Amino acid sequence: MARTEVTLAGQVVAITGAARGIGRATAHACQRAGMRVAVGDIDAEGAERTAAELGVNAMGGHVDVTDRASFAAFLDEVEQRLGPLDVLVNNAGIMPLGPLVSEDDDSTRRQIEINVVGVLNGMKEAIARMTARGRGHIVNVASTAGKGGFAGAVTYCGTKHFVVGASEAARAELRGSGIEFSCVMPGVVNTELASGLKPARGVKNSEPGDVADAIIDALRHRRFDVYVPRAIGTIGAVFGAMPRSVREAAARAMRADRLLAEADMQARAGYERRASASAPERMTIDG
After folding, report:
1. What gap in Å lies between CA 99 and CA 87, rounded to an integer?
2. CATH fold of the domain at 12-277
3. In principle, which of 57, 143, 252, 263 could form an S-S bond with 196, CB 3.0–4.6 Å?
4. Helix (H, G, I), strand (E, B), or coil: what is residue 140?
């Protein structure tokens, strides 16, 4: 029997990394769905600008996802101003590119702190609130890189594999609790984070709005696996049934294996500078 479509109007959603990119597009999509929207970002001014674009029933606030106390304070403010949290979208993340051997240790730690610890902090804080009410929905934005390995982004791929695995495990752990999970796995999306990337053969780049619309659909239909575009899920299923040698040959034919390794680093210079900031407080997080 098909599940009843969830009505989103009036629900409270908090979105991290929402000053720009996928997060900003998701905030707008949630607002169009009638939700009360909290825009969180390390860039507090950017978060407030996005919230101002949304108008009523919206707020912007600072959140450092790597600091659990900061995350808790952000969600406390959300609940005080907008009401009990119904949905958390863990979107904040960074994607520095380059060979593993030349990746400095600070970059490695930043990716783990933001892409891994940040997601865990969000889940822990949201689950505690949602469990008390017996309902809620957590959306973790991973990546196609969470299902395969891509040269030029070893640590990033590892962090996104973590997000996929942690989402699956949390879903199993909380089955029957009333808390739903969705794991979003976009391909290349036309945001600053993906600057300098060329699409793989046979798969078009998506727009932030495409990912936002997929998130809204997942919330309405309680869907866990969210591929953007959906064709990526089909391609992944076909590849997964192949022997590794055939799978890797097919990836080479699509140039998917070089997608991140052959990025135009000059075009990425501005983003890479921000992603390589020495402290989370100085980062611009994009999703």
Report:
1. 36
2. Rossmann fold (3.40.50)
3. 263
4. strand
- The residues that bridge with 179 in the sheet, in sequence order, are 136
Residues 184/208, Cβ–Cβ less than 8 Å: no
End-to-end CA distance of the chain, in Å? 35
Confidence (pLDDT) at 202? 67
**Domain residue ranges of the chain, discontinuous segments joined by +:** 12-277
Helical (H) or strand (E) element with 73:
helix 68-81
Local structure of 59: helix, strand or coil = strand
Q: Say what angle helices 21-32 and 44-54 make with each other, to 10 degrees.
A: 30
| Count of Cβ atoms closer than 10 Å to residue 60 Cβ | 24
pLDDT at 281 over 50: no
What residues are annotated to the active site? 156
Strand order across the beta sheet in which 179-186 lies? 58-62, 36-41, 12-15, 87-90, 136-141, 179-186, 225-228
22 in Cβ contact with 39 (< 8 Å): no
CA distance 179 to 181: 7
Strands 58-62 and 87-90: unpaired
Tell me the per-residue pLDDT of 93-113, one tens digit each, with 9 for 90 and over: 999 999 999 999 999 999 999
